[in-house]
Amino acid sequence: MPTPFDLEGRIALVTGGASGIGEATCRALTGAGARVIVCDVDRPRAEAVAAELPGASSLVLDISGEAAVKTAYQGIARLDILVNNAGIGLVGNIEETALADLQRVFRVNVEGLFLMTKYAMPLLLASHGSIVNLGSVGGLVGVKRRFAYCATKGAVVALTRQMAVDYPTHVRVNCICPGTVDSPFVEGYLEKYHKHEKEKVRAELNQRQPIGRLGRPEEIAHLVLYLCSREAEFMQGSVISIDGGWTAA
Ligand SMILES: NC(=O)c1ccc[n+]([C@@H]2O[C@H](COP(=O)([O-])OP(=O)(O)OC[C@H]3O[C@@H](n4cnc5c(N)ncnc54)[C@H](O)[C@@H]3O)[C@@H](O)[C@H]2O)c1
User: Fold this and answer.
1) What mean pLDDT comes out for the span 8-26?
2) In 3-state terms, what secondary structure has residue 202?
3) Which CATH superfamily is domain 11-179+217-238 in?
4) What distance in Å separates the CA atoms of residue 198 and residue 201, rounded to the nearest whole number?
5) What is the pLDDT of residues 200-238, one digit of tens each?
6) CA of 238 to the centre of ligand 1 (A)
7) How far, in Å, from the CA of 1 to the mean position of ligand 1?
8) Percent of the chain with pLDDT over 90
9) From 73, 119, 149, 167, active-site residue
């Protein structure tokens, strides 16, 4: 009987692998036997995470630069799993959102994902590989004053389904939509927008999810692990919420 969710011998690239959900994903995939490429723009963190994980390497890259992405893939001979996790946020309704900020969020969350996936396709087609995209509840329902962020995550949901239609039997493409997860992403938001009322806003974030707490990065990481395992071979073009009941309400 093979071990469930075994990724022995697989090579996985995780964007945004140096922090939060991405870091937990690097750990979970390594634990299942994969060799992980920790891809991030943050060199010290990427190198530190890779140094801790057996078989891992780091790839310091801004995923939104086409030339750099192309060059990066020239150094990768085989790829079985691509986790498009890197992403940034922005607070503001449509009136508060400047065009340059909207474009910055799209550049990372959509264009970066596009570039990383486009140039991975020859490798993923050769390996019959699997892509997991990190969307968000913000791609499924409206979240107050998250105009740009919701727009980008809606695009991630749509492009996941579109790709599953183009490559139904060749590459699996699925999308995870987390609710609020306790990561440096949320800490950064609290620090930037609610410095003097962090605990009050943290409590509001907990209450926004019927389960009454934030998600943990490992909880998302294990769903990523499932989706890229052999056990999930029937999963194609799925958009899965994992949000403590937020979108069920
Ligand atoms: N934390 C949450 O509440 C939450 C909820 C839903 C969805 N998500 C999504 O999950 C993903 C990971 O979130 P997280 O909370 O772990 O974030 P995080 O901020 O902790 O980590 C994101 C990582 O992405 C890297 N990154 C950012 N821009 C990059 C670029 N241009 N090129 C390469 N790397 C880049 C950062 O350096 C960082 O290490 C994101 O796509 C986010 O939108 C997060």
Assistant:
1) 98
2) helix
3) NAD(P)-binding Rossmann-like Domain (3.40.50.720)
4) 5
5) 999 999 999 999 999 999 999 999 999 999 999 999 999
6) 21
7) 36
8) 97
9) 149
pTM (whole model) above 0.90: yes
* pLDDT tens digit sequence for 237-249: 999 999 999 999 9
Per the document, the length of the chain is 249
Instruction: Indicate whether 29 pLDDT > 80.
Output: yes
53 CB near ligand 1 (under 6 Å): no
| 184 ligand 1 Cβ < 6 A | yes
DSSP 233: T
Whether the CB of 130 sits within 6 Å of ligand 1: no
2 DSSP assignment: P
CA angle 85, 213, 158 (to 5 degrees): 35
Residue 215 CA: nearest ligand 1 atom is 3
Amino acid at 133: N
DSSP string, 134-151: E--GGGTS--TTBHHHHH
Specify whether the CB–CB gap between 174 and 236 falls below 8 A. yes
* Residue keyed to tokens 């790709």: 163
**Per-domain residue ranges of the chain:** 11-179+217-238, 182-214
Distance, in Å, from the CA atom of 14 to the CA atom of 138, rounded to the nearest integer, reads 21
Tell me which amino acid residue 93 is. N
Amino acid at 126: A
Q: Is 243 in the pocket of ligand 1 (CB under 6 A)?
A: no
